[in-house]
Amino acid sequence: MGTFLIISVLHLAYLSTAGKARYKAESQEVENRVRIEDFLYENHSAKIGVIVGTSLSANVHHPDLVNLSFRGGSALTALEILCIAEQLPETILIEANLLYQPVDREMVEKFESDQRVTFPMLQDRYRPMSLLLGAIKGKSENRDPSVNLQSSRKLNATTKAKKLPVHLASAAVRLSSEELTTALALVQENVEKLEGLGSRVIFYLTPIDAEVVGQPRHQQWRKSFVEAFPNRSVEHLAISDESTSDGIHLCLEGNLEMGEQLGLLAGIPIEKNRGK
Amino acid sequence: MLFTTIEFAMLVAIAFSIFYLVRGVFAQVGILLIASIVFYAFSSPWLTLLLLASAIFTSWSSYEINQADTAKKRKIIACVGVMLNIFVLVFFKYAGLLVRSLENLTGASLSGAEWLVMLPLPIGISFYTFQGISMLIDTFRDSRNSQEASEVYRSGQSLGESLYYGSFYVIFFPQLVAGPVVKAKDFFPQIKVKSISQINWRLVTHSLVVGFFLKLVIANNLQNQTFWIKYPYIIGMSADRAWTLLIGYSCQIFADFAGYSLIAIGIAALFGYRLPDNFNYPYLSASIAEFWRRWHISLSSWLKDYLYIPLGGNRKGSFRTYLHLLIVMVLGGLWHGAAWSYLIWGAYHGLLLGVERATGLASARKGMVPGMLGTWTRYVVIFLLVSLGWSFFKLPDITHAGLFISQAFTAWESSVAQKKEVIVVATYCLPVLLYHLNYKLKFTKTRPYLVPVAYGVMLYAIVVNGASADAFIYFQF
Questions:
Q1: Is 0.90 exceeded by the ipTM?
Q2: CB contact set of B290 (below 8 Å; sequence gap of 6+)
Q3: Which of B424, B457, B463 has its CB closest to that of A129?
Q4: Does the distance separating the beta carbons of A129 and B221 come in below 8 Å?
Q5: B164: which of A182, A252, B14, B329 is 20 to 30 A away, CA to CA?
């Protein structure tokens, strides 16, 4: 017990002296939980909107938007998180490409109690592994953005041939009628709830490779979505550089432009964005 | 109900509080029977009926074996009881696989048998049917060897008592859904009045802290990394990544199952029952044979006692010995799940055992490299061979497992550096490595002050670095 207390005190001391310690998430799940912590526990009163999506939107940045997109997760989970939030931004931008992915109820339940606020060391960003990876990253990462951009391009070129078949294979499998019905019902339920709370909801589609969009799952989902919500429009984002790193994820330039496009949808002029 | 949930903690707390207040073995067993039914019914209310029916039928058969006045009658009852347990197991677990395989072989659609594919898989069926079979065989063997009441039934002489204590043995909740597989002859002598002063607190503390640490910190966090060993993500996976994740999976499956077994041992010890150890540092094995003496010991020992030796073991010449080894390993593999990949996994181990036996490599002293270096080299080689076999566990579709293994050996040309993944997997595997090294190098024996430090670190990691309470891998078996 003594060791336990000593380590706990040292951990708390580190967190209080290092402030918002540098961290790096060890997995997509941890990264998603940190995003939720950011959203729920930080003051976002100056933000105009929130992006709710999957890994397709996870790299988007806009100074006036909070990004609650989950890599390897579901936009439906993010919608459920919005429903338990104390404050909601005025605009909710929902990525509709993969909105059929099932809700992670366990993840939502974790944030229904406030123990992470009472005991900050229980927050995922402060996990020992997150701090360890953060410390390693801090020493090794190249801070020059142009170098990062170059390496990103090199990576994209070598990985696309590998990753495209993965996404084609995933999208080749049709959704079951139960999966479809459940997803559509949850979208409807959550959107009605959020609109009832005064938020404006906008659906959007990110550009993905034509070969992937042509697969049965995407075709089936898009058709079912339009049939289920005939009165809602879905914005197809017009990105000038639609090249993807793997068939579905936009490259760096595309993500930068997508941030501006989403800002426009939320009513933020591009000039304002660039000025920040 | 999972061991890692608040509901389970409450169930144990309530059962523990009442257990030591009541007097007499009958009442104490009654508390544990109720707790066991609540534990199982929490996740599978309807399938609890199957569990109870199986336990009662097996206990009744055992009672009848004891009561039968001739050897022939005893044998018939034992055979019927064993066959019925096997039938329940095959029907609920393998019927779907058989229907699908028949469809694939014949090309015909067996739409009338579709309901067999849709049958729910009762949690822990492989474990409780094996325990039932153990009770029947042990009773039969005891009754054959002795004119007195059998060891198994010393606690219950009347039919009512036999059903009561027999059912308790089958459904005792710490080991109900994923073992350790307890043999009747080891369990029944323990059914006595328990008092709180008899609790082995050292065993309880050690088992629970290490068990929860292995499960929540190691297995669950590694699961977030090894998640990628899954179709279609294995398409185009580089060899270095495949090996990183596969080694991570080896540590994950050990931490998951050894963690479960330790928690089960710790919980049972709270109620004064000693369950058998299930793991003995399996990744420090110098041969596959040694690995099976150290991994899932309760199952290996069950298969040896109730299958390998009755088949003839190694007493019927070398050909039959190899055949017996293969049969036992194939059936042991299939026991793990209703997929042909488990059968292949079992055959893979059977073949390795055969090769070891034929070449004399099973003997720990023989090796190409002498001394310590030779021993450690063998540990590494056996670990890698065992790890390769886990591919069939992680990817139950044979074609996917084949693709993954082929990537692991061929896709070296376009390695994508996953530095973070390597660091994370290595960090979570480190405690598993230290756990094994401690056995060999005896850090905690020579430096006893390390023990409380280790417990403190593990507790701390459970609190701040644990991951989601996912089901244990062995629950599916």
A1: no
A2: B362, B364, B382
A3: B424
A4: yes
A5: B14
